[in-house]
Structure formats: structure tokens, C-alpha cells
Amino acid sequence: MVRFNTFLRMGLLCVLIACVVAMIFPKKVNASKLESQTETVEARGGLELTIAIDTQSDMETGTTAEIEPEEFSKPKMLLYTSYTVQSGDVIGTIAQRFALEQGTLISVNNITNPKTLQIGQVLKIPNQDGVLVKVERIEKKLPTLNEFIKRISQNRKYQGTPSSESGLQALAVSIQSANELFMDIHEKFGTETKSVFIPGVQISNLELQEINGDIFLWPVRGRITDTYGYRYDPFGGNSREFHNGMDISARTGTPVYATMAGRVTFAGWSDSYGYYVVISHSGGYRTLYAHMSVLRAKTGDYVEAGGRIGDVGSTGRSTGSHLHFTVYKNGVTVNPRSLLR
Questions:
Q1: Would you say 286 and 259 are in contact if contact means Cβ atoms under 8 Å apart?
Q2: CA–CA separation, 189 vs 171, rounded Å?
Q3: Contacts of residue 271, Cβ cutoff 8 Å, sequence gap at least 6
Q4: What is the pTM of this model?
Q5: CB-CB contact of 297 with 219 (8 Å)
Q6: CATH 3.10.350.10: which residues of the chain?
């Protein structure tokens, strides 16, 4: 028994010494050469599945994300190349060819109607997206760069302008770099500066739709019988008068639709227009639909684009069954035909 106790004590002492040595001198392991361990688990139905467990760290086995080179995103000077319009070209395909937005080409080339591009016309192609904006005076004084930027950021004609102070400062730096403006943000523009290129900012979708002439749906199915502009009095005589809309001939009872979503600001009668409806839209637009036989909308209604607001008729001062359609932009009539899809 004494001998057994002695052996037991010696065994325990050896185990204790081994543990101490392992703690002081840990075994070095090469992580890159670790082999995958396996673990056997019991799956449904009593099947045993062997699963490989990767013991390597994510840092050694994963990929590290790479930061974009600074020269890719830092502000750059504005440069132009030229392109001659070819047969079959439209503004969209040209923009796509040079990896630019349509609004960029429209802005820098002062295009008022992309549908009138002509073969042989030479376009300026910038090396970056943005808009070209005229420097206008504020109360007869030239603005500072800071005032200019804040005015652009508040203009609904443009989109993509930053709202934070740091964003506006970054935009100021990019404007200075693109236009080579050696001026402080609080320094006024010189008289020689007529227009400034603003990188990254774009023409708003509504403005782009207006330029492309596809902002409004057609109000009725029919045939155009009179256009916008001066005409002879349809009731006889040699006098010329200004026709502030377009006339679309259609049978009485043909549905009349709202050309764009908006609020009905008037629905009623006048001796001139007969039964008519006026709708206010976003972007400073207002549309008028006249000579209808029936009104299907009332003042205060909100209507979606394509919503039925009445029926074609010949009420008021009219020579036959038709719809008179007028478009106002900021209180001034414009040619409806240029805005219809």
C-alpha cells in the first residue's frame, strides 16, 4: 500500500510538471499549414455527416477590400472633345457612348430640343458629368462662389446638389478645380466669368422631360384641327387672333383625360370655354380643358395622370365637337404640342 501511494504521488507530480512546462513553452503552430479538422454529427434519420472545419483565420483566408485610388474620385479639370452627329444618332445613344448623362450633353451644348439634332452637327463632349450654369447677378451684384452654390442647391431645375455644409464645401472645391477658378469661396465672380460648370449636378427629371418633349399624356384621342399661335378668326372675318392652345377634334362623349397628375383648381362654366376644367401640376404647370359636354371632376379633386375629367363636347364659343387644350408654364402659355409624348 505504501509503495502504491508513492507511485501515485510521483505520477501526480509528473502531470503537474508537464502542465507547467506547456504553459511556459507553448507549442508554435504555423497557421498557414493547419489542416482542416473534421467533426462528425448525427443528422436526421440517424445518418452521420462529416463536416470540415477550417481552422485558419479570416484574415489569412479572406480577401481584403481595396480602396479606390484617389485619382479616380478627386476633382478634375473640365476638358472637352468634339463629336459629329451621325445618321441614326439620338442624344441618349451619344451620351451612353461617352458614359455620360443625357442632361450633361443637353446642358453643355444648350440643346433646347434633342429631337432636332442634325447630321453633321458638332457637339461638345465633357470629360465628366455636370451642368453648365450661367452666372447671374443677385440684386445687380455678382455673387460669391458660396452664394452661387447655395442658389443652385435651392433651384428645383437641378438635382444632386448636396444639402450639408460639408457637402457644399466639397462641391465648391470641385467647381474650383473643374473651372480653374483661383478664387476664395467668399470672393465674387469676375465680370469675365459668364458660365460655370458644376460637376456631379444634373438637370432634374421634370426639366429633362420638358426638354425631351414627353412630359404630358395626350388629353384625348382625335385629330389636331388647330395649333398654337396666330390664326384667322374661325367664326369668320379677316382678323387674326392668338390661339393660346391646340384644338383636337373628336366625337361628342369621347373621354378627356388629365395629361399629368395634379389638383383641379376650377371645374365649371364660362361663355367662352363652355364646360371646362383647370388643373395645377408640379413644376409651375397648369392645364386647361375646354368645350366639354360633361364634367367628371370637381374643384379640389386630386387626379392622376390619365384620370378621366370629362367628355368632349361643343359648349361655349365653339364651331364643332372638339377639345381645346391649353398649357401654362409659370403663368405664361406655351405650345402644348412640344410637351406631349
A1: no
A2: 16
A3: 316, 317
A4: 0.58
A5: no
A6: 80-212
